[in-house]
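Shipment paperwork, digital attachment
Item: protein structure file
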Amino acid sequence: MNKRISLEQRRKLIKEMTLMDDFLMNCVFNDEPEAIKQLLSPILNKEDLQIIQCTSQFISKGYSSRGVRFDVLAKDKDGKLYDIEMQKDERYASPARARYYSSMLDYKYFQSNEARDKNDPWEALPETYVIFMTGTDYFRHGLPVYTIDRHVTDENNEELSLFNDLSHIIYVNCSYRDNDSDIGRLIHDLNQADPAAISNKILSDRVKY
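Attachment content:
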């Protein structure tokens, strides 16, 4: 059976895409630091974020054949690394998968010239964020954003302090609806196929382009 689709069908598929689709996301955010800032600022609640580098579909080869493809990899002026993954299907948003992506960010750093030039590369290990943009509420608590950090606990599993290893995992619930908040407006924009319905002008212009 011929699986090729017509040009008209292809145009229809593209017209129906939102920023939750990998293909459109990669086109919109690749080498566009200002667009990445519009995405990350509401998630991190940080207006002064300055992105200096970003690329989409960055492939990092592991020691074995099991490498990883980052949907969008970004770096800010302070050297912090951000991996942003669109996970519409929550089957691909497991905590174990997030842990693996986090470890690959560290691996990527240790393969860089920056790490090789350091006398103590462990102390220079950058702060990292793995951000899963999920199509459903993965944790089922009705929140727009879930931040996962490690903590020190006692024998009763009571939290004593933050284990500040500088690695963070964030899940963004892209089924959340609240147009009165910055994160709610961002999530609204991520789910729009029509650029005219996207409230953020920078994102709207990029999607339209």
